[in-house]
Amino acid sequence: MGNHEGISVYNEIGQLKSVLLHCPGEEIENIVPDYLRRLLFDEIAYLKQACKEHDQFAGILRQEGTEVLYLTELMAEILESQEVRDGFLEDFMDEGPVGTEGIREALREFFSTMSPLEMVRKCIAGVRTEELAAIKPKSLGDMVRNPYPFYLDPIPNLYFQRDPFASIGEGVTLNVMHSKTRNRETLFAKYLFDHHPRFQNIPRWYNRDKSHPIEGGDLLVLSEKIVAVGISERTDAVAIEKMAKSIFNSNEPFDTVLAFDIPKTRAYMHLDTVFTMVDHDKFTIYPGIVSPLDVYSISKGTELKITYEASELSSILKKYLNLPAVDLIPCGNGDVIAASREQWSDGSNTLAISPGKVICYDRNHVTNAALRKHGVEVLEFESYELSRGRGGPRCMSMPLKREKL
Ligand SMILES: NC(=[NH2+])NCCC[C@H](N)C(=O)O
Questions:
Q1: Most buried in the list 101, 188, 288, 394, measured by CB within 10 Å?
Q2: Where is the active site (predicted)?
Q3: Chain-wide mean pLDDT for the chain?
Q4: Who lines ligand 1 at CB under 6 A?
């Protein structure tokens, strides 16, 4: 396997060699107040500024030597094949869903003149009813008046590339998303791992055809042996056990999954909104989830051995990561109001570039100061608009390659 081919992620902090991003596009300008909640946004972002901020993010990554890949470009490469392109469009319309043949025919025509990159971008942006010329009605569904403004919904959460799939070891979980509005995101990941030459024969620890949800924001690769996962608003216990069995049945070195039972609320939607790893023995933590925090260990064996870990989080981390001590750096630096404010704008959602060096939103200045006080180097970028989608630097990035420690 070439240097940049495949997946290799055995930790959260090793030098980040290659990462997958999606820069927000026209999908953001297809968000309207009536559908904010369903589209999982708390406000409508200003696209031009959001793109500027995302470019700052990508710029920092490149400066640090990380290869930055964009989902749209990788998808465009595989859609150069007419067969793959046709198959993708049919699957995409199935899952839209686009139920009537008249509209499907019109959409095929609409996309047929686009370049692969234009088609990918437009699939993500969504297709408004006003964009399609007169539909040649083929069914009742084509004829009845429908006030809904889209034939294909926008997919505005795609810039949170952390969630649709997750790199673990040399494989990935191809996820089932908690919400219908995000599930089509995993179709892009499916096509990527089915067809892109960089990602051939990648083991799948979970597949999108399953029924129980699991999202990448809940998955942290704490070491070559330990995967942490949130039992959260977005990820359920059944999916966690299925994933654990898949990984344990492979040749991967992982032997334990630590499941954190976190509050099932939007603010703490994924484990990485309240807990991330920033150095060999340092973590950010949102104090609001610490006590009580139920943690279960799932250990490899002929049968899964599931144990309730009746200790404090720091003791559990010391035990499983073989550390003499751990430093849990509080979001908000002990200030309850600052913690709540900055957790809401993803103060805990750091992305490690290398051990002890992380990228954060500049707006979370209290938490960033705390990180620095604890010896962590913090690289910052602006977020007036990106954070309106309720995600931070870790949410917006899926590592493909990290150096082993
Ligand atoms: N890994 C994360 N914390 N992702 C944040 C995703 C935010 C997105 N608006 C959602 O509700 O799904």
A1: 394
A2: 395
A3: 96
A4: 40, 157, 160, 162-163, 182, 217, 269-270, 272-273, 349, 389-391, 395
